[in-house]
Amino acid sequence: MGISVYNTLNARKEEFKEIHPGEVRMYVCGPTVYDDSHIGHGRAAVMFDVIYRYFQFRGYRVTYVRNYTDVDDKIINRANKDGIPASEIAERYINSYEQDMESLRIRKPSHTPRVSDHIPEIISTIQALIDKGFAYPSAGDVFFSVRKFHAYGRLSKRALDDLESGARVGINEAKEDPLDFALWKAAKPNEPKWESPWGPGRPGWHIECSAMSTKYLGNPFDIHGGGKDLIFPHHENEIAQSEAASGKKMVNYWLHNGFVQVNQEKMSKSLGNILLIRDLLKRYHPEVVRYFYSSAHWRSPIDFAEDNLLQAEETLWRFYQAFLRIEKLGSAEANPAEQNPLSEKLAKLESEFMEAMDDDFNTARVIALFNDFLRLLNQHLDLPKFGKDPAGASLLRKSFQELVRLGEIIGLFQEKPARYTELAKTKAIVIIGLQPEEIEAKIRERAQARLEKKFSVADSIRAELADRGILLEDTKEGTTWNLELKKVHQKQQASGGGK
């Protein structure tokens, strides 16, 4: 059985069958670059990055296109407000988006085309639509005739009669029908413009993706993705344009990721709850954010509540603490331990991972699978002699390596365990209000108390630190400290520091 995907077009899961053997061609709608990117952009980027990585893991050659809309009303309005050219606004926020993607460890797509670089292709597509009778010029604009494309509404499951009843008649007298939409807009003052057969102007929103996807992927191609908010009208209009112009099916599989909420409310400027990626990453490691995104099925809604993020951080911390313990076992080679629950689970881990991912890229099942494996890993780490035995240590190392290998496909477990621990400690000491040198001073004070047999004093120091989320561990080499992250988070929430 191969990969199955939920296809919005047919509203069901379908077996994925590529058009060109061994190759996947995928187009995902990128951002309109007029502001910094928020967590909704982040979810789409992460989840399609996971899909991109998984197809590569399965041996496909993947051509992945994610565009930039750098010509748009919102960009023009921002440029006029700031008193600078629209191209400068677009460039600023393309750079901002790419920095955010790098911070989230998003792999670079094969192509990242911009509207402004593809005006000739857009004009050519519009002309083809006019020549075939699907579009018409009107006073410098060009409109698509929705009623002439008989399959309109197939993706969004909307009937033309319902759309007509909701249309505002007379809002644009240049239109022959209120349902028609703009392919080309006549030039207005203080707007970017290009020459065209219909006079100077700029593209409408929807035509860009039809032109660019056709250029880089041809028609038909395998997968088109984006957020559920793009199903109508953007993706519906893309289908109409592309199929009317080419006479061929546009896309075989339409994939749409679920909405993002903040504390169970829709994210909006009016509510003041827009959460930017860069602000989120000031508080959380990129892998915590990726873990959180992956903990829900990519088609389901997801809620950015502080408790959910803190829980993701605590869980990822437990993985890295196990990895750190395994690294301390050394690296001497030995035959793996005899058959036991861990070795049996390790032998099945990849097949179970693939079974979950083959089922519509179910990262939520993968996260559950990884957590089950972590519990088994920690049980064996806690066995007194298991890690000291070369065969047991070898099995633990192989388990660690396999988690790192498979985790990479969803962007997890790629940090060095010692570095991840230090980053978490650096964040935690700010929250608890203790510097490392203060903790070390407390450790020395406790050691002196123990030498002087003042055990009640030593115990009170340990308890004081534990109450603040600092755990002491006595070893042959001396006393070290680590975090009880849950306790740190409780302190953070009590002080309102995470809000």
Outline:
The protein is α/β, with parallel strands linked by helices and 499 residues long.
Cross-sheet strand order for the largest sheet: 4-3-9-10
Nearest-integer average pLDDT: 93
Instruction: Tell me which CATH architecture of the largest domain applies here.
Output: 3-Layer(aba) Sandwich
User: What spatial form do the alpha-carbon principal axes imply?
Assistant: elongated
What fold name goes in the CATH topology slot of the largest domain? Rossmann fold
Whole-number tally of structural domains: 3
Query: Mind telling me the CATH superfamily name of the largest domain?
Result: HUPs
First-last Cα distance: 45 Å
Low-confidence stretches: none
CATH class of the largest domain: Alpha Beta
Estimated structural class: alpha/beta
Rg over CA atoms, rounded to whole Å, is 28 Å
Please give the largest β-sheet.
4 strands, parallel
How many strand segments? 15
Level of helix content? Answer: 40-55%
Q: What count of helical segments does DSSP give?
A: 17
Q: How much beta, percentage-wise?
A: 5-15%
